[in-house]
Amino acid sequence: MKRINIFTRGLMKENAVFVLMIGLCPALATSGTVRDGFGMGLAATFVLFFSNVIISVLRRNIPNQVRIPIFILIISTFVTIIDYFMQAYEPELYRALGVFVPLIVVNCMILGRAEAFASKNSVLDAALDGLGTGLGFTIALTIMGTIREILGNGTFLGMVVLGEGFKKSPVIFMILPPGAFLVIGILKALINKYVRKGQ
Amino acid sequence: MKNPALIFLGAFLVNNIILMRFIGLCPFFGVSTAVETATGMGMAVIFVMTLAAWITWIVFHLILLPLNLVFLRTATFILTIASLVQLVEMFLKKSYKNLYDALGIYLPLITTNCAILAVTFLNIDNNFNLLNATIFAIGTGLGFILVIITFAAIREQLDLAPINPSLKGYPIAFIAASLVSLAFLGFSGLFGLT
């Protein structure tokens, strides 16, 4: 496979959230605003990129029988790093994301890429794969965050977009949990209808 | 929020782990296709969740805290839960064959169920004592069972309904989840819980 395909595959064709439907918990929980969704996406991308690289470097030294605990240990190392980093430099974002930062460790997207790709491919490929999948995840969360913040709060990144009147009485439902389920359900239906015809 | 009854209600309904906190969605959508499998999964979850809450609480307060190793929390908890699940599986297989037959196939899936890990983290973040941590775990587990069984029943009906092809499967499940979640939103504010 061409290198560029490894990178772009995770962005669109095998987008974790919209196509493969994995990593749903953080995707729904942290997409209430654009900022939270984007921050969560970047945190997951960081963990995915570095865990992919390290696992690929060590792939010939990891005994097959205990590979899953070792993968989890490597992933949890980077989760701890991003956890403490955010706590120190982005305390407000950290408070908003809450328990979902340490929960990156059980995000099936990251363990899935480790098992399915990084443990079998070269370091460069694994790095590209991690970056592509992670950015695809970030894009998905940002799209959902955009829709939910604009409709549910009348703002985009805190700027008023639909006028002051709408800002005063927005569709609050959209930033609450039911809105997350509704938005991803409708997006998935649209993808089924227009992108993946006949599948 | 120190009253055990309120902790239970909060975990069970008001901050329901699936519909309000969005934790444990993978088993929620994966297993909730039939009432029977949903019940088995739910039982396995509540069982492991309570055990994990005890063990991680003890590990955190008696080992990590005195040794000043709090930064190892994430790694320790996930490994503890993974070994706990293995141990429970082996124990049930040997000693309680009936229970193993009922829960067996769901146990390995539980290691990667973020609901278990989330409960152990929330216990620590909320500074619960051991009793409250247990109540919180049981309440959360019961909330998980309630929602997953309700939803399995809804999806069994959805299978029979005439649905637009692009909405079939996941999209309609999400939209149904949205409506159930909307109903649960009605519990917020119950006894002043948010």
Secondary structure topology:
The complex is a heterodimer of chains A (199) and B (194).
Chain A (H helix, E strand, L loop, with lengths): L2 H9 L12 H6 L4 H24 L9 H23 L1 H7 L10 H11 L4 H31 L1 E2 L2 E2 L2 H6 L8 H18 L5
Antiparallel strand pairs in A: 1-2
Chain B lengths: L3 H11 L10 H7 L3 H30 L8 H23 L1 H7 L3 H4 L3 H12 L4 H31 L9 H16 L9
Helix pairs in contact in B: 1-8, 3-4, 3-7, 3-8, 4-5, 8-9
Describe the structure.
The complex is a heterodimer of chains A (199) and B (194). The radius of gyration of chain A is 18 Å and the shape is globular. The mean pLDDT of chain A is 88. Chain A has 199 residues and is an all-alpha fold. Chain A has one domain (3-148). In chain A, α1 (3-11) packs parallel to α7 (123-153), α3 crosses α4 and α3 packs antiparallel against α7. Helix content of chain A is 68%, strand content 2%. The two termini of chain A are 23 Å apart. Chain B is mostly helical. Chain B has one domain (4-187). In chain B, α1 (4-14) runs parallel beside α8 (130-160), α3 packs parallel to α7 and α8 packs across α9 (170-185). The longest helix of chain B has 31 residues, at 130-160. The N and C termini of chain B lie close together (10 Å). The chains are: A mainly alpha (199), B mainly alpha (194). The A-B interface holds A 21-22, 24-26, 28-29, 69, 72-73, 76-77, 79-80, 83-84, 98-99, 102-103, 105-108, 111, 173, 176-182, 184-186, 188-190, 192-193 and B 19-26, 29, 71-75, 78-79, 82, 112-114, 117-118, 121-122, 125, 164-167, 170-175, 177-179, 181-182, 184-185.
